[in-house]
Amino acid sequence: MAAAILISLLCGAAVVCWYWIRSKATYFERLGFLSKRPTFPHGNLKGVDTEFHLSHVLKQLYEEFKNKSAAHGLYRSLLSPIFVVTDLDVIKDILIKDFDNFRNRGIIKLEHDILFNHLFSIQDEPWKTMRSNLSPSFTSGKMKIMFHTVVDISHQLVAYMKEQDVEVVDVKEVLGRFTTDVIGNVAFGLESNSLQEPNSMFRKMGLKFFSSDRIQLLKIFMLRAFPAIARQLKICLTPTDVTDFFVGIIRDTVDYRRKNKIERKDFLDLLLKVDNGGRPLSLNEMTAQSFLFWIAGFESSSSTATFCLYLLSINQNIQDELRNEIRSTLSKYDNQLTYEAMVEMKYLQMVIDETLRLYGTVVNLVRQAEKDYRIPNTELVIPKGKRIFIPIHAIHHDPEYYPEPDKFIPERFSDDNKNTRHPMAHLPFGNGPRNCLGLRFGLMQTKISIIQLLMNFKFSPSSQTPIPMVLHPSALVLSPRDVIHLKIEQL
């Protein structure tokens, strides 16, 4: 009798479980959205982070559904349905016209993870206030002030490259050290000396944060699939020693500056002067914002410059044309790299824009609906509280907007060609009020590194150069899977 009752209970539980899974697996179907059936427990993302990058799946779904609907569904897991918007007019509405309904990214709050509570992840009024406080640090005027610091460090980059008695260089490693030195100086007012000391603590902590070992991947999966449980368990994305390092750096630097009444025209100096609703920023708030500036500045810029040199090395005619522009422009400025000379280099901007189209470091934008949102001119409704993806990597590779999308053609970004395209067809830094605040600085340090390197070296593929490029499957910022070895020839 007891055995029969137990079997009945197990059968009943199995039926309930089956219906529960089925209800989750038909979520988009019931709302009228197109989607692919998910598998347990990965949803539509089986193989992501281990075999291929998220951009691969988003591009496949984009190509399948783009011409059928303005948006479709993506199962990040059975418990995490996400709406993917592909219509550029709707994307423009979400990012700009209807921004008030989509001002948050829907990132789980991790108050216990000190470095995670930065401008990218905070929400609502705290985000609005912090954004307003930080915006003055990234004006054109502030860029001109920081420009000379970046140029000085770029001279160290060139000197380092000339000292290397090698024909082949790991450009991602070298550029990562350069941008680490730049951000350490501009954000913290400290010399990290990563070019000369590859094992400097700044460099080690940066590499550790961006590492994607199994433990980190498990944390990310828990946050995506079971956010409430992850929060209860106080899971931190930031390793403890990385947090301790940066909290210590900011605490010691702030104490020293206040004690000695030192002012520097850098990012930390601005944070010290912020009036955040009638109070100064706390140590943790300053640390989190400095950390965001640091991780975004050193990794995104070094990856963009790496991709750029890679593309230039296998497109020698474009490399020659860009070098000619650099030389002819600098000749007007007594061969000195000035801010005005950099801005004048239109072809350089085109080259970087095309690099960001092919290999933008962010593959999708994330927003969350504050209330139910009916997609214009459709019956489709994105429910309140649900997150949406804008698959910018897929859009950047759409032949409708970019014929022969896998080819490197900087002329796509001439003024005439840009004016013929939809403004939402190129979104490497997002758009609207929540676009990338540091885009000017990121572009500036990328441009300076490219200018200085092309003035002094010729880059070409080596026998070790990976052609075609393969993306790292689990990288937080789009990165190559393999080491990018390029042949260098001093000019």
Measured between the Cα atoms of the first and last residue, the distance is: 89 Å
Main beta sheet strand tally, sense and closure: 4 strands, mixed
Radius of gyration (Å): 24 Å
Strand content: 5-15%
Cα shape: globular
What order do the helices and strands come in, and which of them pair?
Elements: H1 2-25, H2 27-31, H3 54-65, E1 71-75, E2 81-85, H4 88-97, H5 124-134, H6 140-163, E3 168-170, H7 171-188, H8 201-209, H9 214-225, H10 227-232, H11 240-260, H12 267-272, H13 283-313, H14 316-331, H15 339-344, H16 346-359, E4 365-368, E5 373-374, E6 381-382, E7 387-390, H17 392-396, H18 415-419, H19 439-456, E8 457-461, E9 485-490
Parallel strand pairs: 2-7
Antiparallel strand pairs: 1-2, 3-9, 4-7, 5-6, 8-9
Description of the structure:
The structure is a single chain. By secondary structure, this protein is of the alpha+beta class. The chain is 52% helix and 7% strand. The protein has 19 helices and nine strands. The strands form three sheets. Strands 1-2-7-4 form a four-stranded mixed beta sheet. A hairpin with a 5-residue loop joins strand 1 and strand 2. Helix 6 packs parallel to helix 19, helix 7 runs antiparallel to helix 13 and helix 13 crosses helix 16. The N and C termini lie far apart (89 Å). The model has no long low-confidence stretch (mean pLDDT 88).
